[in-house]
Amino acid sequence: MAVKLQPTKNLEQLWIVRCLSTVLLFGQISLHILQGKTYYGKVLEHTVTAGPASLPPVLLVSGFAGMIFTIQTARELVRFGAVENVGGAFALAFCRELAPILTASIIAGQVGSAFAAEIGAMRVTEQIDALYMLKTDPIDYLVLPRVIACCLMMPLMMILAVIMGITGGAFAASYFYQVQPETFLESVRDFLTPSDVFIILLKGLIFGLIVAVNGCSWGLTTKGGAKEVGESATTAVVTTWVAIFIMDFILALILFEKPIL
After folding, report:
1. Which molecular-function annotations from GO does this UniProt entry contain (predicted)?
2. Are the C-beta atoms of 145 and 39 separated by less than 8 Å?
């Protein structure tokens, strides 16, 4: 007896609908923020989750990434006798792009998935329906505090990641290529301008918004049981990564691309 394969069209349509619901949720969040509707007491709780609780992996990854990037870059610059400029190359690539992307990816994996799983579990156990019965808007009680916490902590986490990356890069340049830390830091300072720091903070704000909104949206649209909660958490991370890279590409075009004419 032949086994009929289940069509994937319904799954694709469901995925598209849930992605569109993320856009609609962003509109709801913007409206509620303008109306001042949120439980600020819950913000501190999620600030700890999005900040200190995620700090060790962010610093560890940034430190090693900084050392790896410096080793690979300095190896090539040695051929041209320009190893003293390794700090400038580090500033242009790692500080502008790699550190924000790595930080946002780690926060998405740790915090975004947690948001999706927590809210998804509340959805399938009908706790969100209970909030409606208590005349409490889930957007105000569950979503807004998480969004505010991520938007506040992501820029700070990125700055700490950049500092840790620079520290790791200076150590690698000194230990493996005998480039003095002062020379490395001077080269970083020559290439890294105050506008770059502002761009890093701007990316932190935008990426934090993407992580929180996407995680909460996939949690709110979860249906079924424990299996679906896990699927929502996993898919929330993947779609968040995709959205972050797309947004980073758009920001790079807007902020760094020179006009042709």
Report:
1. phospholipid transporter activity
2. yes
Contact predicate 241/144, CB 8 Å: no
How many other C-beta atoms are found inside a 10 Å radius of the C-beta of residue 20? 11
Pair 50, 154: CB distance under 8 Å: yes
C-alpha span between 55 and 102 (Å, rounded): 12
Do 32 and 140 form a contact (C-beta atoms < 8 A)? yes
Read off the tokens for 128.
């969100």
| Residues 213-253: tens digit of each pLDDT | 999 999 998 888 888 899 999 999 999 999 999 999 999 88
d(CA 192, CA 156): 18
DSSP, residue by residue, 191-237: H--HHHHHHHHHHHHHHHHHHHHHHHHHHHT--SSHHHHHHHHHHHH
Q: What is the pTM of this model?
A: 0.88
Number of C-alpha atoms within 13 angstroms, CB side, residue 260?
0
77-89 pLDDT per residue, tens: 877 777 778 888 8
Q: Virtual CA dihedral for 18, 21, 23, 27, nearest 10 degrees? A: -160
Nearest Cα to 91, choosing from 163, 192, 184? 192
Write the CB contacts of 109 (distance below 8 Å, at least 6 apart in sequence).
237
**Domain boundaries of the chain, sorted by first residue:** 38-255
Locus of tokens 């797309």? 246
Q: What is the mean pLDDT of the chain?
A: 86
Task: Measure the CA–CA gap between 248 and 255, rounded to whole angstroms.
Answer: 10
For residue 197, CA distances in Å to 69, 91, 163, 229 come to: 20, 11, 11, 38
